[in-house]
Amino acid sequence: MTQTLDLFPIGNCAASALIDRSGRFVWACTPRVDGDPTFCALLSGEKSEEQGFWSIEVDDMASVRQHYVRNTPILVTEITDKSGAVVEIIDFAPRYRQFGRVYRPMAFVRKIRPISGTPRIRVRMRPMVNWGEAPATITTGSNHLRYVGGEMTLRLTTEASVSHIRDERLFRLEEPFSMFLGPDEGFDADVAATTERMLTETTHYWRAWVRTLSVPLEWQEAVIRAAITLKLCAHEETGAIVAALTTSIPEHEGSQRNWDYRYCWLRDAYYVVQALNRLGAADLLENYLVYLRNVIDTAQGGHVQPLYGVGLEPSLVERFADHLPGYRGMGPVRVGNQAHEHLQHDVYGQIVLSTVQAFFDQRLLRPATVEDFRDLEPVGDRAFELHDQPDASLWEFRGRENVHTYSAVMCWAACDRLGNAARQLGLMERADFWNGRAAKVRETIETGAYNETLGRFAATFGGDELDASLLQLVDVRFVSPEDPRMAATIKAVEDGLRRGPYMLRYAVPDDFGEPKTAFNICTFWLIEVLHMSGRTEEARELFEEMLGRRTAAGLLSEDITLDGAELWGNYPQTYSLVGLINCANMLSRPWTSVR
Questions:
Q1: Helix axes 574-587, 520-532, angle to 10 degrees
Q2: What totals of helices (H) and strands (E) does the chain contain, helices first?
Q3: Which residues, in sequence order, are bridge partners of residue 102?
Q4: Bridge-partner residues for 147, per DSSP?
Q5: Could you tell me if 415 and 351 are in contact, meaning their C-beta atoms sit under 8 angstroms apart?
Q6: d(Cα 29, Cα 7) in Å, to the nearest integer?
Q7: How far is it, in rounded angstroms, from Cα 570 to Cα 512?
Q8: How far is residue 415's CA from residue 348's CA, in Å, rounded to a whole number?
Q9: What is the CA radius of gyration of the chain?
Q10: Which residues pair with 135 in a beta bridge?
Q11: pLDDT, tens digit, for every residue of 369-397?
């Protein structure tokens, strides 16, 4: 079976898993999203049919249908055999309120029942430990199996025959049964009744959350699915938001561009909370701000890394997991990310941009205070200090540094938004101070980044390079799309980086050669500026093109081939889902057109 990214995520903001089109768990890490992949078939190459999965296989299978329960991340898989017998599998991670808090265990539930006929099934449970080095050791109880040897011992509790599961025996499915895979703790309750209650409560939770969203009139289903999935990328215990649920899916075939995205990039998290704010989802913002305040406290006015672990770990040393061949055998499989050592100065802007809404938003349980503003000012000091200094850019170049326009503009945004926050708090002297700094940074950018000869902005100070991030100068309100300098920049970026419907990040070779796939968020950035430049019909057509490239789950990865035939890069990618939400909000007809 050829591996693809046509996968359905499930999760609860503590546990997450990816399920393939046959209903197999092929990716899930424990004890948290950046941990050891207990289910690692996604990166097992030719061994993906032998190890690292959890399958419910129907004898003489004829067809499979899958869908999410409406407005939830609860997956339903229906498998029909050649006689017409049907098996239904419901997969979810429990999440609901009880005892005054949210119950979100590191656990998964699978509920299996015969819909028609008497199908024969086989449960194959093959978790691995130490990044695919060895199978977990199995011990057996009367109603449970324990999987020992990894970072977390797991216990599978079920009312089905544990020997059938242990021995991977084919058996008749005459009655429904449930499986609860979670911590190594006794399950002191009726498995069927308890997991049914969990399913009901989890369904209610997600539908109630979706009801709080302010969705656009058009493309609601796509927006809701993207929003739910962004929430699944949150590690709620700390407030972190990871860039993707996977590691080491190549950016294109044989590229070696295999990165671990299971960490919290402050840039990516800013874009996530910005998109969800536009839908009115304040809960993720508030929780992420807790994470950010801890980052700021730890930095003590000094260097801030571009990314941290979900538990605020600063050191994410990059290494190879040699026991896993990689996606389709295309290693290396990387654990950790060397980018934690980079200088990426845009991060100071993203900290302020993520926080500034809290000074204005009266819905929040904890609105930002004068003390919060004082804590943010050292971040602004760093932005002002570093706005004209070289860094690795948002694209995390490993072999070169420049003064990057995007980074400088984000430093300007830090100063500008601190001025807004100070004015809101009535701190007029500080507002004038930060507005003055913003003006100085703007002058530096307009001098250094604007190429007089070409009549447009360049990606680096004093350079002529094109970079899709230049399109973000409009979104951050540094310049309007009607400004002749920006209009020329938009045209140059589109002419130089657009490949059919899709956009490259940049077209020059980097540490790994020339990019061979388009970067999905950049295409969404193009859609935004096309609309803002008055080319709305073109923007809508391009948006529909991107919607047509989603997986069956309604999601996107980081990259796409230039012919649009295949997704590459880590999945699901928060950047890409952010772009979908922002463009749908921007392009949709208003609700007033139908009510």
A1: 20
A2: 14, 32
A3: 97
A4: 138, 154
A5: no
A6: 16
A7: 17
A8: 10
A9: 25
A10: 128
A11: 999 999 999 999 999 999 999 999 999 88
